[in-house]
Amino acid sequence: MKVELNKNIIHFKEVNSTNETARKYLKENKLQDDFVITADFQSSGKGQLLNSWNSEPGKNLLISMVLNVDIKLKNQFYLNIVSSLSVLDVLEKYNFKNSSIKWPNDILINKKKVGGILIQNFVKHDIISQTIIGLGLNINQTDFANYNRKATSFCLESNSYYSVKEIRDEFLKKITKRLSMSEEKNSDDYFSSLYLKDKASTFEVDNSIKMGIIRSVSKEGFLVVEFEDSTEKFKLQEIKYLS
Description:
This protein is of the alpha+beta class. The protein contains five helices and twelve strands.
């Protein structure tokens, strides 16, 4: 899939959310080309399942990409794979170790959350024709609220400050490259980068605590976990990590 993202970057000082701004811009301007929305601050940032995404002004990467695609709806999880790996590629570029993807698309460094992705698709006749991929990546922020999973940032992990614009450009370069790679290569890389894969771990399922081992993610995006007496598939919110 060929995209050009560095030519159409629209930057705002403040928006309610970059994904919502991208959606409105797409609707009102009827743009045909791929484009990118970035902001220094978003007052109503959203993560998965309408969770909020809080970010101090000017300190982090807040970005949404609008891509023209041609993907079958049943294969929509592939967009999670490509976008998550692109962030890991950026972390590798900046020499961050022990990074991983917590299913479906949270980005971790040393088990702490450094980034999150929100994807919104536009579907016609079971084909995704356009997608908005939103990323919040913690760069220079050092003070975070007390989330269920501790948050971190580039700065906290390295004790250094970074150019948000430089990291933006690097991310756009990495996702452009990932979109040009084969589905097999990207899928293999995603599975090998999956947090807690093939490790005995503790989960909460139906209000019960269970030991299990993450074995894979199905093509449809279900998490496949092996328990002592069964192997089960889970959608988002059906299983909670306790590790």
